[in-house]
């Protein structure tokens, strides 16, 4: 045989994946759990998940499925009845009558949806564009697949979102563009006209548009309403999930809207990858689309709105004044450059001294995130008040920059 020996190729691929950065917040969760076991005083603002339960109709549908033992493998694309219900959800939420069950692919969580999308769409060496700051798993998974990730620095001047003007300035036409609205960690929302313009630019340039719509439904009326990319372009891939709006994180269920040209690839990869999404969760999710379930989910969002206001009012009063908009999702992204240039170390110190856990900005922005933290307000309102009280007592009168940087000397 000629060329690169097989074992060298395998080692090179392994080395590539070994270099993918970790998701640092996972270590924060572990440290917070340990602190909870030893001290019992943790207020965890690092977790990207609701503390609320799944709607009652979801839980009841899951119990019925277990009792009736309708739990065998489903079609790789998902239970047909659920795919039809998801299409109905798009008609209800966006007034889009063009979505059919054939467009829908049920996935093992939103994360499984991203994996399927990336594997079906991108090849090693392809350039894929993302916003920075943004959800780290896009970057990490794409890098592990050998893609070239280009992160566009997005700040207040562009609403923490990419623009068509930024795409026009790229040196090459990318294979893909991934956007999230509402976005993690900033909570920023892309205006419908700008979303349509981004999708149109991608269609015109042969760029695969991937729209992360996982936080749809969690918005606070202070920015534009979220629009679905599918309403603009059927060439887009839409990623959504039951995790956030319906509080079903551990159920591991999401969905895609997939262009017809990609459906065969997605189906084949899904069948080989997981055979099918978890059937108990699929059966339970049929209960997500009742009037009662929507009402429960909206009540959760109303509570998040109270928590959001507490943070947006309280953080400036303790010196944290540079905050991303938080128009959607359930996070406040805060600049703490006046306190530290190492938010990993800052977070460790904060947890040790106050019991408050926050997510480090370097997960979301490897360049400028060293001076930012993400605070989740998806928990109990009492926890938000307690966290603000502890932070207020901890931050004033301390030279954190000197203390924390000293840990590395």
Short description:
The protein is 43% helix and 12% strand. With 409 residues, it is of the alpha/beta class.
Topology:
Layout: H1 6-18, H2 24-38, E1 43-44, H3 56-68, H4 80-94, E2 104-107, H5 109-121, E3 127-132, H6 136-144, E4 148-153, H7 164-168, E5 176-180, H8 192-205, E6 208-212, E7 237-241, E8 254-257, H9 260-273, H10 279-285, H11 291-317, E9 331-335, H12 343-354, E10 356-357, E11 359-360, E12 372-376, H13 381-394, H14 400-405
Parallel strand pairs: 1-10, 3-4, 3-5, 5-6, 6-7
Antiparallel strand pairs: 2-8, 7-8, 9-12, 11-12
Helix pairs in contact: 2-12, 3-10, 5-6, 5-9, 11-13
Family: Belongs to the class-I pyridoxal-phosphate-dependent aminotransferase family.
GO molecular function, one term: pyridoxal phosphate binding
GO biological process, one term: amino acid metabolic process
């Amino acid at each position: 045989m000629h060329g690169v020996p097989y074992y060298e190729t395998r080692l090179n691929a392994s080395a590539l994946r070994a270099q993918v950065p970790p998701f640092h917040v996972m270590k924060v969760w572990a440290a917070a759990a340990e602190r909870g076991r030893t001290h019992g005083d943790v207020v965890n603002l690092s977790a990207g998940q609701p503390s609320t339960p799944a709607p009652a109709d979801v839980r009841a549908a899951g119990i019925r499925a277990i009792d009736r033992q309708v739990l065998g493998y489903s079609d790789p694309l998902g239970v047909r009845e659920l795919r039809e219900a998801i299409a109905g959800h798009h008609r209800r939420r966006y007034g889009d009558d063009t979505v059919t069950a054939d467009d829908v692919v049920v996935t093992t969580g939103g994360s499984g949806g991203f994996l399927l999308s990336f594997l079906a769409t991108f090849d090693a060496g392809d350039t894929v564009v993302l916003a920075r700051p943004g959800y780290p798993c896009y970057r990490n998974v794409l890098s592990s697949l050998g893609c070239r990730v280009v992160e566009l620095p997005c700040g207040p001047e562009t609403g923490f979102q990419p623009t068509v003007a930024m795409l026009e300035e790229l040196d090459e036409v990318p294979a893909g563009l991934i956007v999230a609205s509402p976005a993690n960690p900033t909570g920023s929302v892309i205006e419908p006209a700008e979303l349509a313009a981004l999708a149109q630019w991608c269609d015109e340039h042969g760029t695969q548009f991937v729209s992360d719509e996982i936080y749809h439904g969690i918005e606070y009326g202070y920015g534009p309403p979220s629009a679905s990319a599918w309403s603009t372009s059927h060439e887009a891939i839409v990623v959504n999930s039951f995790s956030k709006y319906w509080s079903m994180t551990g159920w591991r269920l999401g969905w895609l809207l997939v262009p017809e040209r990609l459906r065969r690839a997605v189906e084949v990869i899904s069948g080989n990858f997981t055979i099918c999404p978890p059937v108990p969760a699929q059966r339970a999710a049929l209960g997500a689309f009742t009037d009662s379930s929507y009402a429960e989910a909206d009540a959760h969002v109303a509570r998040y709105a109270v928590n959001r206001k507490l943070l947006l009012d309280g953080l400036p009063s303790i010196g944290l004044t540079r905050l991303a908009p938080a128009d959607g999702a359930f996070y406040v992204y805060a600049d703490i450059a006046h306190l530290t240039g190492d938010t990993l170390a800052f977070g460790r110190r904060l947890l040790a001294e106050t019991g408050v856990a926050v997510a480090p900005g370097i997960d979301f922005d490897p360049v400028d995130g060293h001076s930012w933290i993400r605070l989740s307000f998806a928990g109990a309102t009492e926890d938000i008040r307690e966290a603000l009280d502890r932070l207020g007592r901890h931050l004033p009168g301390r030279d954190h920059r000197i203390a924390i940087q000293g840990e590395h000397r």
